[in-house]
Amino acid sequence: xxxxxxxxxxxxxxxxxxxxxxxxxxxxxxxxxxxxxxxxxxxxxxxxxxxxxxxxxxxxxxxxxxxxxxxxxxxxxxxxxxxxxxx
Length: 87
Hints:
By secondary structure, the protein is an all-alpha fold. 71% of the residues lie in helices and 0% in strands.
């Protein structure tokens, strides 16, 4: 039997729902569906259309990270403004 490693990823809600829907349609868990999709992707790395998907995912990831960082900074600065000033 092949050893396995657990991998955790975050998905946009629409993709997570589609993953679960497609898994249910096939009467499998969404984990099995995700594993099948990863396996399919890895077996088709030379497919030219994959580069477009990779580029889109990379760009969306960067946008999510930037938005999260901005929200974190705004939260910290807003909290700092509300603190009593030292005399």
